Amino acid sequence: MIEFDHVTRTYGPKPAVTDLSLSIPRGELFALLGPNGAGKTTTIKMLVGLLRPSRGAVRICGYDLTKEARSAHLHTGYVPDEPTLYDKLTGREFLWFIADMFGMPRHIATQKIGREIEHFELAEFADDLTESYSLGMKQRLVFAAALLHDPDVLVLDEPMVGLDPRSVRIVKDLLRTRTQEGMTVFMSTHTLAMAEEMADRVGIMVRGQLRFLGTIAELRDHMALETTNLENLYLELTTSNPDRP
Amino acid sequence: MMGISGSGMSGRGPQSESCRLLSVDAESRVFSRLRTTIAWETLRSMLSGARLRLALVVLLSAVFWGSLYALFIEGFSFLESIHAEVISLLFNAFFSSLMIMLVFSTAILLYGNMYCSPEAKLLLTLPARAEAIFAHKFHEAMWFSSWGFILLGSPMLVAYGVVRGAPWTYYLLLLPFMVSFVVIPATFGAICCMAAVAWLGSLRMHALAIVGAVVCAGAAWLGWSLLGSSPAGGGSTEWFEQVLARLSVAEQKFLPSWWLSSGLLEAAQNSERPEARFASLSEAVKFMAVLVSNGMLLQLLARWLARSCFRQGCSQLVGEMPARRQRRIAWVDEFLSAAGTARGRPLRLLLVKDLRLFRRDIAQWSQFVIFFGLLGLYFFNLRVFNYNAAYASMISFLNLAVAGLILSTFTTRFVYPMISLEGRRFWILGLLPVHRDQILWSKFLFSFFGGLLPCCALLYLSDSMLGISRSLIWVHEVCCMVLCMGLSGIAVGLGALMPDLRESSPAKIAAGFGGTLCLVLSSLFIMLVVVIAATPTHLAMATRAFGGGGPPPTGFLGWASGPQGTATSLLVVGFLGVVATFLPLELGLRAFRRLEP
């Protein structure tokens, strides 16, 4: 579903992501971890087509993001870290705009908009202008928009920021259900507990390079430490000598 | 790298049957629906929440349109009576100047809308064609850059039609002519913008600066050659003919401005013979066809360019490293931080902070420089004309009002929202050992001294060019100081009295009810100050003009037109200034002390 093929991205002379190769199959929830400035945001931006790789290729469902961006986007839903909405549209109008952009027939769009409004409990304010929404309400609407077309791949950048505990639970349940149905999730997060609870595999990035890729159990085995706490493993890995085997 | 274990690629995944890529037409319809919905909702919000602002905008636009129409009727009637051919030259000069401005304004607007806005980032992650996103953003940019042209051009062209007795077809063709003309420079600006982002990379700012400098130098040279270096006296017939001869430089047949001018002039022909009328109409339609076809060709080129390099340009911009700011501290910051007593230091530090924000906000200082620069250019050219004393005095007071009005737009747009914006960062200021009053006073001082220097200098330039007396220069300078003080007091006071702590855009804060009220009160204050200060001078002028060399007037008229009258008017102006400064400031201070962010 998602493939990074020897991807390098530089900002001027400075490399942000170096030779990233990564495949994520259908139905997997993958969490990308790493300290600030590790290259997570650059990786996400390349995955949603906002940045082009300096070298290598990024593919979603086999579509190259550089050459076939529209086809790749048809299969992708994206929840950015800062929700972008049109102030002068209501929540429902925004969902209709997204449905129209994905070419949904009217009867299907009506049904799916109703479904997402119900899932994310938007009914109470769906017909208000989004300029009056709180951050959490905006984030729920963006989730609804990203899932509206039943994407094969969902890309999440710090997805839980601004959500209240109930909304977090809704999102978690939804991600579990959708991944079981075959949706692939690529999530960048600083919330280690979330990654530990939800992710099938994690990737840990440090200074633009993927330092670890595998399950949490594999990470514990790999680090050969006494601790079983992900936070300690993460800190050990991200602060340790990169040459360590 | 360690522990990398891929799980294999599944190839092209199952595309949801409910989704499909849209055709070009369908995409265009979706964006058109989006624009219509947003426009409608914006209008509805204004009608429900900003009626005062909407009413003021409509009223002032109508007054502006009507005044321009009356002015153009007079102007065209005068020109028709002396030299009808002049009109073609004027049309060409007017439209070619507008054409250059439209190129720049569209390019700048499109750069912000297409490459730097969050909306563009959202659209780039949707399955939309790059050229459809371009077309959507281009519509917006073209509207914002050309509405001024429609507002300014329509009274002129309607007045021309009325003076010429143009047939009804002329009025029917006006709007299509204007729209088809606007598309050409706007699209050209869009092409320049996309090409600069795609191919000039980090050099685009330098390239833009060079082009801007060349255009400014060209405009200055043209202005000087038209007005400044004439051997004939300003305002004389010979001088006027020389100016017209030089204006012919704008009459180039390859320019869209010439096609527009020629088309309009043909459309306005009102011959008695039906064949001649039909021939003129045909010529006009031909010129419109030239405009439309060129506009369409440029649109095709722009869409091809968008398809080829819009996504690449966005990627390049997102990937650019932010410029590292030099740590060097400006001497003025250092001076302000160090000078004065320790007690006033927090206030001075707040001032330094606002000064730094101003310097680093290109929107603020560029508008400041452009508006005051243009005003300076106009004042500098005043000496071309020879005025009698009464006329010079009247113009000097009008210039005082203009300088005040420009300053009031700045205080409303930039100073009024300062407290609201500060409110969002109140957790920083709230924890500092600074009294809340000092925050407000720092804003007031920033606004007052920021406006005082350029306004006083510009008025001195205006008065010197008009050759008015030293005593009147002093009157103007005092009035200018009062205006700066009062306008700053109104903006800071109302800003603290009616803060909008949820809004992060200063433009939106200024556009709300408080901002509109600030602008209205500022305008009233300026009018009062100028009228009160001008009255004694003009009474003196009037008594001299109508007195016919007789004895000077006695009684109230004599008192009011003498030095006592001037002194009294200055006292009243000063009192007005104190009220306009301290009343809103006091109300603002009280509200700000109670503010709970």
What does this protein look like?
The complex is a heterodimer of chains A (245) and B (597). In chain A, the strands form two sheets. A six-stranded mixed sheet of chain A has the order 6-7-8-3-9-10, with helices on both faces. A four-stranded antiparallel sheet of chain A has the order 2-1-4-5. Chain A contains nine helices and ten strands. In chain A, a hairpin with a 2-residue loop joins strand 9 (201-206) and strand 10. In chain A, 38% of the residues lie in helices and 24% in strands. Chain A is α/β, with parallel strands linked by helices. The radius of gyration of chain A is 18 Å and the shape is globular. Chain A has helices at 40-47, 69-74, 91-101, 106-119, 135-147, 165-180, 192-198, 216-223, 230-239, and strands at 2-11, 14-24, 29-33, 55-60, 63-64, 76-79, 153-157, 184-188, 201-206, 209-214. In chain A, helix 3 (91-101) crosses helix 4, helix 4 (106-119) crosses helix 5 (135-147) and helix 8 crosses helix 9 (230-239). Chain A has a single domain (2-239), classed as P-loop containing nucleotide triphosphate hydrolases (Rossmann fold), CATH 3.40.50. With 597 residues, chain B is mainly α. Chain B folds into two domains: 49-318, no CATH class; 361-594, no CATH class. In chain B, 80% of the residues lie in helices and 0% in strands. Chain B contains 21 helices and no strands. In chain B, helix 5 (130-164) packs antiparallel against helix 6 (168-199), helix 11 (331-338) packs antiparallel against helix 12 (345-360) and helix 14 (389-424) runs antiparallel to helix 16 (436-466). In chain B, 35% of the residues are buried. Mean pLDDT of chain B is 81; it is low at 1-15. Classes of the chains: A alpha/beta (245), B mainly alpha (597).
